[in-house]
Design goal:
Elements lengths: L1 E6 L19 H13 L3 E6 L5 H7 L4 E4 L12 H8 L9 H8 L1 H10 L7 E4 L14 E5 L13 E2 L2 H15 L3 E5 L4 E9 L3 E3 L3 E4 L13 H5 L11 E3 L6 H18 L4 E8 L5 E7 L10 H8 L4 H17 L9
Parallel strand pairs: 1-2, 1-3
Antiparallel strand pairs: 4-7, 5-6, 5-7, 8-9, 8-10, 8-12, 10-11, 12-13
Helix pairs in contact: 1-10
Length: 340
């Protein structure tokens, strides 16, 4: 197959905010995916979505499939940009479609769907002006987040607040900084879990990854903040969480968490791959925080590959499984052999 890899490259630019490129991928990740695809005998062409005119590129360069990891350029629906172009040009691609990617990036709308599907998610409220009355049903502590950002952008230890004054101060700060609505939701104390869902012949939940922040006292952060994600493993900063995969859960709780992750994947309409972030409360109730249909695929640091390795997969096998899922979806089982 002739495959194009669409991506956004993480860069260094001191004129941009520190978290500006957080969602983008490193050159190491891009090289790893290219290598994995080539190892399966495919021809690969890398396309930087920030630099190329994708309409022009794909009209001039015919491909059988696009392996898409691009986050888009800007805006509330940025992750849908590349799939929208590919849909218009009728080019098959891996991963979720325009609707699911736009939906998942909007935390509040996603949570409304989860509630409609009876999937547990923390109580929440959306602030657009910063002057709205706080819903009296919400109980402190509360965490405050930009509503349409990924990679924990805009989130640090100060986002968990214990009073109305602190809440309104943080809400106004985020509205001014990110020029979008702000989500406030009850902070769930308990185990931090993330669950990868992979469609490889059937929808499967990978071994659950538990992130233990007990060793991160020095950092003052005890959940997946932006600093925790960006500088994970930095002992000097105290950003040294401990990972357990499979997570330390009894069989009943494990089954419940995996079921919730699969139901979330399906409720949002994801394809091929997703990763759902969950907090397990003191009563072992799994609360879905959010779902990421474009999870990171760094072979060394990203959570999704860690879970795939725990399932006995090699990196090349993971990338091939994503491709195979997309190929089957577009061409059907009988047609796959024609596109080798």
């Amino acid at each position: 197959m002739k495959i194009a890899l669409t991506y956004n490259l993480k860069e260094k630019d001191e004129t941009k905010p520190a978290d500006y490129f957080s969602e983008f991928d490193s050159q190491e990740t891009i090289n790893a995916i290219i290598g994995a695809i080539r190892n399966r005998g495919h021809e690969v062409h890398a396309v930087n979505a920030c630099e190329a005119n994708l309409f022009t590129y794909f009209k001039k360069n015919m491909v059988d499939m696009v392996f898409n990891i691009a986050e888009g350029k800007s805006g509330k629906f940025r992750e849908s940009e590349i799939p929208a172009i590919l849909d218009y040009l009728n080019i098959p691609y891996t991963g979720s479609n325009t609707f699911s990617l736009a939906l998942a990036l909007n935390k509040a709308v996603t949570k409304k769907i989860l509630k409609a599907e009876s999937i547990p998610t923390p109580l929440f409220q959306v602030f657009s002006k910063g002057s709205e009355e706080l819903d009296p049903a919400l109980k402190f502590p509360i965490i405050v987040k930009p509503n349409c950002e990924g990679s924990a952008k805009g989130i640090n230890a100060s986002n968990v607040v214990n009073s109305k004054d602190a809440l309104y101060e943080k809400v106004k700060e985020l509205i001014n900084m990110y020029k979008q609505e702000v989500l406030v939701e009850e902070f769930i104390h308990g185990k931090e879990l993330t669950v990868g869902v992979l469609e490889n012949g059937k929808v499967t939940a990978l071994p659950i990854l538990e992130i233990d922040f007990a060793a991160c006292i020095k950092s003052g952060e005890y959940f997946y903040s932006w600093r925790m994600k960006e500088f994970q493993g930095n002992a000097e900063l105290g950003l040294v969480p401990t990972f357990y995969c499979p997570a330390r859960l009894d069989q009943e709780t494990e089954a419940k968490v995996k079921e919730i992750a699969i139901r979330t994947h399906q409720a949002v309409g994801c394809f091929d791959i997703s990763r759902t972030d969950i907090r397990l409360d003191k009563d072992n109730v799994p609360y879905v925080l959010e779902i990421n249909p474009l999870p990171g695929l760094d072979p060394k640091e990203s959570n999704f590959p860690i879970m795939a390795y725990a399932a006995g997969m090699k990196y090349d096998e993971l990338i091939d499984a994503i491709l195979m899922s997309a190929r089957e979806r577009y061409f059907g089982k009988k047609e796959i052999s024609r596109h080798n």
